[in-house]
């Protein structure tokens, strides 16, 4: 039970990685609060946490809005009395648009994407970390991306937002370290999912090859010859959140099967 008795908050808890992380954290002994914009998704995740025998709290919130994040902090501390772990997993989908092709609508989407990723992480840390400082310790884990280490055409919104979180995490690690609060990142590469398979099929059709050929070529570029799963990423987050990583802060743990070495 790596998180036995702890209270964990997952900001940006969606139906994929967020759900997997919430359930695994509950199995590791944590009570879990989940926050995102979709109330229906949150209620379903909270029900799964409760089914694991742990207390659950669902708080609909837009992490890029200060009032929503203050309300999240109040709801969590009002229910549980403390915060031990904060995971920032909110991310916008990339619109895959080259910078020089952006019109006003795409420029606004770019700004919103960076706000969700970087400013949203700043806000949750600003209003939840003080409770960790007051308690003398805690752990913040920010889920970033391999894309924050290397840019790809058409994905500057996603890459810039996640890269901002990396350096924000370094600053916070330095600021909060004396109070016993650790701040780290987990940077996934590709994660096995229907979305990834659809993208591979699109590329296969564009190149006139089969899905199997594209997948085999992509996997061959990974040192471990396998695509990471949601559970692989969640386990890395749980490790950094736990006391087993009590001397680790300001670090980034890559989970990409060896697709990119840093």
From TrEMBL:
InterPro entries: NAD(P)-bd_dom_sf, Sc_DH/Rdtase_CS, SDR_fam. The keyword Lyase does not apply. Keywords: Oxidoreductase. Pfam families: adh_short_C2 (PF13561). CDD domains: SDR_c. Belongs to the short-chain dehydrogenases/reductases (SDR) family. This is SDR family oxidoreductase. It comes from Actinomadura miaoliensis. The lineage of its organism: Bacteria, Bacillati, Actinomycetota, Actinomycetes, Streptosporangiales.
């Amino acid at each position: 039970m790596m998180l036995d008795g702890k209270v964990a908050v997952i900001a940006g808890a969606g139906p994929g990685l967020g759900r997997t992380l919430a359930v695994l954290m509950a199995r590791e002994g944590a009570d879990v609060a989940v926050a995102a914009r979709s109330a229906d998704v949150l209620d379903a995740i909270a029900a799964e946490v409760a089914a694991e025998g742990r207390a659950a709290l669902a708080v609909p919130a837009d992490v890029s809005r200060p009032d929503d994040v203050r309300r999240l902090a109040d709801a969590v501390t009002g229910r549980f009395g403390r915060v031990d772990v904060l995971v920032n997993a909110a991310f916008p989908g990339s619109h895959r648009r080259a910078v020089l092709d952006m019109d006003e609508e795409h420029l606004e989407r770019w700004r919103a994407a960076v706000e969700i990723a970087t400013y949203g992480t700043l806000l949750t840390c600003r209003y939840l970390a003080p409770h960790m400082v007051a308690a003398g310790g805690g752990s913040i884990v920010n889920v970033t991306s391999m894309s924050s280490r290397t840019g790809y055409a058409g994905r500057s919104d996603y890459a810039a937002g996640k890269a901002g979180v990396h350096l924000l995490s370094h600053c916070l690690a330095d600021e909060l370290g004396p109070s016993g609060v650790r701040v780290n990142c987990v940077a996934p590469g590709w994660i096995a999912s229907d979305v990834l398979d659809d993208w591979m099929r699109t590329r296969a059709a564009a190149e006139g090859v089969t899905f199997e050929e594209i997948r085999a070529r992509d996997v061959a570029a990974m040192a471990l010859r396998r695509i990471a799963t949601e559970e692989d990423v969640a386990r890395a987050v749980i490790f950094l959140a736990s006391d087993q990583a009590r001397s680790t802060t300001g670090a980034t743990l890559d989970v990409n099967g060896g697709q990119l070495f840093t």
